[in-house]
Amino acid sequence: MTKRHNRIHYYLANKGTICGEVERPATPSEEARAFRFSRIVETGTPAASDALLEALAGKMTEAAPDTDGPIPAGFTYLGQFVDHDLTRDRTQVGFGGSVPVEDLVQARSPALDLDSVYGEGPGAASSAAFYQADGVRLKLGTTKSSGPPATPVATLDLDGFDLPRKGAAGPVEEARQALIADPRNDENLAVAQTHLAFLRFHNKVCDRLAVAGTPSTVLFERARETVVKHYQWMLRFDFLPRIVDPAIVTDVFSVGRRFFEVGATGFPTMPVEFSVAAYRLGHSMIRDKYDWNAVFAPGGAIGDFGTLDNLFRFSGTSGNLSPFSSADPNQPSDLNNPLDGEFERLPTNWVSDWTRMFDFANEGVPALAPEPGHAVNMARPIDIRLTDPLKLLPLGSFGARGGGVGVPAAQRNLAFRNLVRGRMVRLATAQEVVKAMQNAGIAITPLTSAQILGSEFTGLPQALQDELVTATPLWFYVLREAGLNGGKMGSIGGRIVAEVFHRAIEGSRISILRDPFFTPTLGRVANMFRMTDLLGIAFDAAAGEMRPLSQNAPRPTAAQMKASIDP
Question: Where are the alpha helices (DSSP H) in 471-514?
């Protein structure tokens, strides 16, 4: 796709054409900067059998209690936000159909540049609507008062705590849709609130730069550069070492890439080994419920968890933002009906309590520990198990709502969708990837057959066991590897993830890897910037914005927050 990537112009690598309103040959400059999917390892193995994929998906989503891993749950949805910053497959092909990699339509720049937030910038017609009247700051939305009366803040409309929405200005079927560069960031409430945090962070950085005397003519670009570089630093030093074996991260960022686009310059590509397999690690981190805020928590004002079902419901893409059905106010709204219910904005009682999703107390702000009786939600460990609600996804989460088209239950199983997607693009098997890495001089000890099978699959028919251990689907393998590596991506999955992140930072127009003198200035600790730092700037903890529904929670004073945020 061309640089004007929020317009519908796509580069077809196998044809050398730009497809939009009219198909035409790509210019040399368009071809040079086109967004492309790519393949690192070719495959010669026959496609996986239906029987194997069905057996794997069934076992991976069997009902089981959620267990705590070592990573705060907020990083699950930060990871999803990052995925949407890197890749968006807009290929029109039926589920299960084969599609050559060169025909895949990449509608997102494969660089860590926050184009999912900024679009093409305030000067472009395609993204001007995302910006405030000053053409510098990003629009925010307002929640809708909801209750319960015992929680006074929940009875208010809160400005700046929802994504901006299209509202009455457009067609009624679009009123609840978020007015943001990537609508996928409103497909569940947790990623929507994460996107909101980045909108607010950008605006707060604009405010700081303006106070420091930055001319209005360059304020947006200066703010964007500051935001993107701090974002990249946070990913490199806070996010990646949590999900990938830190030794692999250090090796890649100090020695360089040895597997993906080695020595390449210019604009990066997006390898399917990452987008279809290795980076789908976050699916195993999702919990079936969260201690969400003071209203939806054990012992909360309503006394219910923030269930995964509700995280989908209170979004504009997968749900309808409404707690109750239009037809029966005593029943929940129909997730698969985008117009069900009365709410067109997020109910105030569903705003995030960030102190329950990230561990501020262990990162320098003890006053932002969860209230007594509550704890930081932890993600599930990265392994082959997915929480069982993911066995039946809401239709909106994969663009299947509307039209009355029935979707078989098997196709609503997230594990099955991931495995079939790998087959659709003829993804190399794990054994082929291991061999390619070894040929590249990377020392790897492959998993044994017993490790691949584990205790879960020894009861499979022998033919399926043989297929699983000799032609292991890459996504399954990297999750199994992580489960045997303390919940961190190991030598295969970890290297793919780390090298693609390295290339995506290196290839960004704004890049900390091409600016050796950059060090973060917005963190609580010198030369460090974490996700908790970003949230501490985006939300005023002293004013109660970090957990607005927790009226009795201890709050740091303004002086304490200034001391912790401004080193």
Answer: 474-483, 493-506
Question: Could you tell me which of 138, 119, 127 has the C-alpha nearest to residue 204?
Answer: 138
CA of residue 189 relative to chain centroid, distance: 12
Angle between helices 414-424 and 50-60 (to 10 degrees): 150
- pTM comes to 0.90
Return d(Cα 294, Cα 349) in angstroms, integer: 9
Tell the residue number behind the tokens 């967004």, with chain if given. 35
H/E stretch holding 549: none
Report angle CA 290, 80, 198 to the nearest 5 degrees. Answer: 90
Neighbours of 90 (CB within 10 A): 12
- Whether the CB-CB separation of 277 and 474 falls below 8 Å is answered with yes
Helix runs in 333-377, H state only: none
Q: How confident is the model at residue 6 (pLDDT cuts 50, 70, 90)?
A: very low
Residue ranges of domains in the chain, CATH in brackets: 1-34 (no CATH), 35-565 (1.10.640)
Task: Give me the sign of the Cα torsion angle 532, 537, 538, 541.
Answer: positive
Round the average pLDDT of the chain to a whole number and report it: 88
CA atoms within 13 A on the CB side of 299: 6
Phi, psi of 493 (to 5 degrees): -60, -40
Q: Which helix (H) or strand (E) holds 417?
A: helix 414-424
